[in-house]
Amino acid sequence: MLKIENLTKRYPTGDLALNGVSLEVAKGEVVALIGPSGAGKSTLIRTINRLVEPTSGRILLNGVNLPSLGSRALRRARRTIGMIFQEFALVERLTVMENVLSGQLGYVSFWRSLIRKFPQSIIDEAFRLLERVGLEEFYDKRADALSGGQRQRVGIARALLQNPEILLVDEPTASLDPKTSRQIMRLITELTSERGLGAIINIHDVPLAMLFVKRIVGLRQGEIVYDGDPDGLTSERLTDIYGEEDWTATVRKKGSDQEEEDNGEENDDDLPQAAMSLSRREAAGRQAGRK
Amino acid sequence: MPTRTLNGTKVWQRRDRATQFRIWLGWLIGTAVFLYCWRIISENTEWEFVQDAHIQALDMASRMVPPRWSYTPTILRPLWDTINIATLGTVCAVAIATPVAFLAARNTTPSLLVARPLALMIVVSSRSINSLIWALMLVLIMGPGVVAGIVAITLRSIGFVGKLLYEAIEEIDERQVEAIIATGASRPQVLLYGIVPQILPAFAGISVYRWDINIRESTVLGLVGAGGIGLELQASVNILAWNQVTLIFIAILGSVVLSEWVSAKIRHAII
What domain range includes position B39? Predict the structure, then answer.
């Protein structure tokens, strides 16, 4: 479905961020992109929806070469590519609902988006998604009143409301605590398999990637140096990607590590209780302030 | 080279010798210029007048009190005019300055080579001329009256509001904008969802702040014939009715205090 051929990006400063990267992602396939800082992971996924313009190479999404599109066609193509960000990138001063609905901006007219008059079917879908990510009660809260994990859930709902064919996920857990990170990764991978979505997930946390994703691609200095399953990530391979280090704690031990995680006791229903009661308290405080 | 080796120990200084000397030289020149100017001013001053200044001031003060309260009904209308000049001038200025700010901001301008310099020109030329001088010219062009005052306030405020607003636009969080771009939104929609919510508090704060300033500025516009309470002020000064002048001062003070209070309330409510 997504086919990247010989993609190169050289920044105006002269830095070569991507050096002839070729990568293919099948429909419904989830790929974790790992590699040291500055390896070009962010650049790679940003060239796909052209937040960063590639220098050369082809990016074929369902046979359409994205780098050659004009601005109108590019906007249409972007509607089918959902993006999830490291710092969530919610519009802080808009409500949760407005943030989720902004996923539909590519489909509605300027006038409708100005007066916030979205089609009812879209609003239904937005409520369904908020329920799916566990935030149905939060639709009228402002985005800056949410905790990190909650914000990322809104970001996921926004991306999914685009009804995308592929998700670009840029360090979804880098600003989250370990437990929330796992919940978010599980939510993303569950949603991709529910909807048959392809995804490229940039991630620093190698054990987390190995836990949730079946195909791992290692990037080093703008080149792919590993492409395979998590079990193949031996100490030698990790040294190829990141450089010399003691990797024994990271490499997966032979055994049922993954199954244990899959039917683990954590689940997504246990929405951070503390965060929930905190925001209730905030709401109460605001009402008191109005009086 | 703020470090040098002295008897084998490494000595750190804030500045090296040459920089230190240049700074010292700068202070020397500054002081010399200051003393020279002082001398020129002193030579051009009639010190006899300055010497009895306190007597003159006391004399004027004695004629200023008590304020002539019966004069109040006469200045209510001009006071209302003054507030209207300030308010309408601010509204017009904000309406014009907003598009100018989007043209001037580096991240929203449609063209860096044409639109941006043009918008910056508007901002700078508006800012460089005081509203009293705008009013002086406009009274000659449009005749005396409130309209000249409104236009003067507008012309002066465009630059102020435009500058602060475009700086606010340049300081927004680009990640939020990128997220909206990534959904396939059009340029106007990106503006609406990615940028406008981020600058709304600044927009409101700047507008109210400028309104507050304009209340003060519009009180003097009447001095050159551009309507408002300044007209009464000048009339009273001309007939040496100092007790009326006091009343006008009190009225101006009252409206400024009121506008400060209102603008503080509004800004507090927004942020």
Answer: 1-45
